[in-house]
Amino acid sequence: MIVIRIGQLADQLGVHRNTIRNWIRSGRLPARSMSGKRYLLTESDFTRICHEFGIDRSALKLKHVPGAPLMSREMGLLEENVRRLNPPSGRLLADPSWGDACMTCGGCASACPIAGVDGMDPRKLVRMAVLGLEEDLLASQWPWKCTLCGKCERACPQGIELVALVHRVRGLRDRARVPGPLHKGVLMCLERGNNLGIPGGDFVSLVEEMASEMVEEGYEGFQSPIDVTGANILLPVNSKEPFAEPDDMKHWWKIFYAAGESWTIPSINWEGVNWGYFTGDERSLRTIVGRLVENMYRLECKTLLLPDGGHSYFATRYGLTRWFSQDLKNFKVISIFDLLLDYIESGRIKIDPSRHRKLTTYTDPCNCGRKSLKIFGHGYFDEARAIVRKCAPNFVDLYPTGADNYCCGAGGGAWAMPFKEERVFYGRFKARQIENSGAGLVVAACHNCRDQIMKSLRKEYDLRVDVKYIWELVADSLVTNGNH
Ligand code: SF4
Ligand code: SF4
């Protein structure tokens, strides 16, 4: 982390002080204010700004402070944006003038990969809402085939909040008519603390068994992370991992081991994903996020890690910002990107860039990218690429990229919903992007992106690529001293 004063930075970059203040206010320079008119920012943000201005950062005199970067600086910053998403009303549109700004230009429809499916598109969605065709909208399956990707919003010149509209339509449907297993997963999570209903004792036994395996694999002294009081980081878990792919849990464990991190997994209410977001069930969403907050207090942890860049990141951050902003004074919240980059840049973990020689690309999850940029004022584009490039320097970007990247087709709950044909159809854009890039390895920061590309698009579109999570890429690149 770097400590700066506005005047000092303005002089060094050759711009006016107000320019720096505007950057901070707009989120272009994500700095957190400290006492004495000083600001704190991450090494990567600072490096990016220097790069933009063609400045040799090594020539600048800077004050560095140890510690992980905080996301708390952003939490609450755009609280109003989050609140606006769901007005407290039982009707679809609390304010009928909501869609007046829509010019019916069709920009949203041309950007939407499933426009035309079921004879629907986002422009029609808006018109139906404005015309009060609420019953027809609630009866339609189309809002459940939408991946909440936000491409339509990005194309809209009038700032119409289409994702919020779809979210609202979903939330107003009778719970018995929520497609697929999503609502059952929400109920299971409320009852048993995870979407798949894994009994508490089974989960704890599995983690303890796997901790012993880590020792056998050469991770000397590795201990079960369950309920470690006073740990720095609390790591929520995606229940599909203990349920079906338990070895995938070890990627984070290896990174924490190499970093010498103090961390824990709670024995109860450890679910990292929140299907309440997918089903528009705000009450359940809030309860599930609240349980993570309770775990932070129960285990006296200092930092909550949002465990991916997909909907776990977005839903938890949305819930924290909307209902628990007061609690954010008592603990930090950190993204995987801030944490991994901090470990790498501070030398806490060492990376061997020769392990991944294939041409490698990165697919931006909509949630930590385009949607995060819009709602929270910052999208994790550069940080993710910096991490991937450290591990796999032979890098190529997809086109389009960053905030304009395409959804994989499995977002918004689509991976779990019974609309496979539409999901695969939607994924044609991602498949084409990957094929055109020539990459042999695709890195994903979201569980659904990874599963959709690895388990579905590869087969459906004959893609010859490997797929890894970004944290898996880092774990596989670790330089360690032991015999593992
Ligand atoms: S959010 Fe994505 S899938 Fe849904 S309407 Fe908009 S562009 Fe289409
Ligand atoms: S892009 Fe915006 S203004 Fe144009 S039709 Fe879609 S919602 Fe309306």
Give a quick summary of the entry.
The protein has 484 residues and is α/β, with parallel strands linked by helices.
The general outline is: globular
* Helix segment tally: 24
Termini separation comes to 31 Å
Number of domains: 4
Architecture of the largest domain, CATH level 2? 3-Layer(aba) Sandwich
* CATH fold annotation of the largest domain: Rossmann fold
What is the CATH first-level class name of the largest domain? Alpha Beta
Rg measurement, Å: 22 Å
Q: How would you state the average pLDDT, rounded?
A: 89
The helix content, as a percent range, equals 40-55%
Numbering strands along the chain, what is their spatial order in the largest sheet?
Answer: 2-3-1-4
How big a fraction of the residues is strand? 5-15%
In total, the number of strands is: 11
Largest sheet: 4 strands, antiparallel
Subunit arrangement of the protein = single chain
Low-pLDDT runs of 5+ residues are: 65-79
Question: Structural class of the secondary structure composition?
Answer: alpha/beta
Small molecules (ligands, ions, cofactors) in the structure = iron/sulfur cluster
Overview of the molecule:
About 45% of the residues lie in helices and about 5% in strands. By secondary structure, the protein is α/β, with parallel strands linked by helices. Helix 1 crosses helix 2 (about 15-25) and helix 18 packs across helix 20 (about 380-390). The chain has 4 domains: about 1-65, Multidrug-efflux Transporter Regulator, Chain: A, Domain 2; about 80-175, Orthogonal Bundle (Fumarate Reductase Iron-sulfur Protein, Chain B, domain 2), CATH 1.10.1060.10; about 190-345, Rossmann fold, CATH 3.40.50; about 360-475, Rossmann fold. Strands 2-3-1-4 form a 4-stranded antiparallel beta sheet. It has a 4-stranded parallel beta sheet with strand order 6-5-7-8. It has a 3-stranded parallel beta sheet with strand order 9-10-11, sandwiched between helices. The chain is built from 24 helices and 11 strands. The protein is globular, with a radius of gyration of 22 Å. The structure holds iron/sulfur cluster (2 copies). One iron/sulfur cluster binds next to helix 5 and helix 6.
